[in-house]
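USER: Please consider what follows.
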Amino acid sequence: MKLIKYLSVAVMGGFLMASCSKGGQPTSTNPGDYSSSTGIEYGEDEEAFDVPDYAEFPQGPGLVFIEGGRTVLGSMEEDIAMTRDNVERTVTVASFYMDETEVANIHWLEYLHYLKKDSLPEVYQAALPDTTVWSRQLSFNDPYVTYYLRYPGFRFFPVVGVSWLQANDFCIWRTAKVNENFAAQETGGGGRRGLFGRRGNDEPVEGEAPGIESGLVLPNYRLPTEAEWEYAAQAMIGTQYNEDENQNNRRLYPWDGHQVRNPYGKEMGKFMANFKRGRGDYAGIAGSLNDGAMITDYIYSYPPNDFGLYNMAGNVNEWVQDIYRPLSYQDVEDLNPFRRDGYLDESENYDSSEGYHSLVNDEVRVFKGGSWKDVAYWLSPGTRRFMAQDSATATIGFRCAMINAGSNK
């Protein structure tokens, strides 16, 4: 009996070696038919461990790949506010995906459409942007209050009047809707992957939602971390002229040079972003509207940065995930830095409850990028500001991000 046992093991070992020599070493997309640990066949019956087929999933709609790496985060500008809240430091940011543009009015109207169709009335009401953010007692902005969100001419302008909480809810909905659409495409439009799992024979099993290990669902859309956003805005990939690890150049803005006008070619002299040029000057003079917009602008206006991202400076500020702390730069890790809460810097350290000598607490979120209403100083990726997560203005929008799942890059 022992001899038979040893012969069986030897035969199985030889079979595994032969299969490895033919197909090479196992990988995530080609794990082989048998376990290299136990020799047991994957999915041979309903009791066996199953390894679903896996291929790289389609890139999420609207996203651009951001190759990660080492960089120096922090403000290069003079600290005019004297906050000293983003001192330069070296970090590494993992590769991820980010929306090519800011989320636009048409995208939010699509969101409202499906909420109205599929959700309770109070959910729909909670998702409505605050259009009164345009209203000013001593300014005639009344047309924007009525028309900016819904008039067709503003379809591809960035949505504003949305709080951090509303933006976060949009990310959750978008994740579900995108995966639902992928499922419909996979089943020929007649099914929803969210209602099915898989077994060894690759047939759908009704009532079982696929898990992460299935590889059948996209990761979550979410707000980018502050480090991701700043890294993507810098786009230092465009300064790597030599094949070495030295970064010989830094950028004050998401483009080369220390000025806000284009120094090259036919577009020479034109502004690179939508911002406030000076006191009372939002766009230039008639016949020469140099930045093209009194308020927000088309989400594809102005040249993209070297990652292919539009309006990472100007147009609207953008919400990021992080809660605000002035000393985050020295507290957080140097690999994928992110402040999710008040760890090591509790809100009790700030006098926000009695007397309101500070606005810092666990419900304030960072926003970055500068807007149509901001001067050029705020266009620098290293500058940062904060606002309550349930507040909204006409100068803040957002874009989504997504992890690069299954990768160590």
